[in-house]
């Protein structure tokens, strides 16, 4: 193969690349990548100023990123709070609905309790008493499914959050501030008060009254208005009484 053939077999790209030798960027120049991904030389007058400008731009972008991240985290927290609030509102609405229904049924349960307290479980009324007790147990069993529970107050310390004091009764056997008797049973619905228990509270031992003393300027009890005492003797007063009695004939 001749030299002419070798020159003809070279590709156009190789020939184009052999045109001028590649020159490295001179001092003070920088390589910038354009939008199409091609590198081009950019003349830089002060490299230190360029680095500072790039650092300032990076700091600004970092601050902007931090702000956007904070907004994102705040939005997540707001959504979580909204989710919890909605869940709590739904639960409160459910409890209120159940409470409204149970409050309408409590008078019927009170009537059953009054009837049971009036019945004497003897031979003639034992069947009636047992039947009403069964109805009461079924009623309470149904309400316990909704977390309704009675409040036991007898023998406990008076609690204004759960008890409603109807009267205070002096008692030598029960300490002051303790519940003596339940007058009407109260109930709780979960952690909420459905109805307070009406109770009778002890005020402690009765206070004995001291005997009344007559006032010092009161009239004599056994004498008359003329100053005589009992047997007709004149009661002395003032300085005459201190000097002694007046003798007869003096």
Helix count? 5
CATH architecture of the domain at 150-207: Roll
Biggest pleated-sheet summary:
3 strands, antiparallel
The proportion of residues forming helix, as a percent range, comes to 40-55%
Q: CATH homologous superfamily of the domain at 150-207?
A: Head domain of nucleotide exchange factor GrpE
User: Number of DSSP strands?
Assistant: 10
From the alpha carbons, calculate the radius of gyration and give it in angstroms.
53 Å
First-to-last CA distance:
191 Å
Please provide the ordered H/E string of secondary-structure elements.
HHEEHHEEEEEEEEH
Structural features:
elongated; disordered C terminus; Nucleotide Exchange Factor Grpe, Chain A, domain 2; 5 helices; three-stranded antiparallel sheet; alpha+beta
Could you characterize what this model shows?
44% of the residues lie in helices and 18% in strands. It has helices spanning 3-9, 12-17, 47-118, 126-144, 238-243, and strands at 29-33, 39-43, 148-151, 163-169, 179-184, 186-189, 192-195, 197-202, 228-229, 233-234. Residues 11-29 and 224-250 have low confidence and may be disordered.
Task: Summarize this entry quickly.
By secondary structure, the chain is of the alpha+beta class. It contains 5 helices and 10 strands.
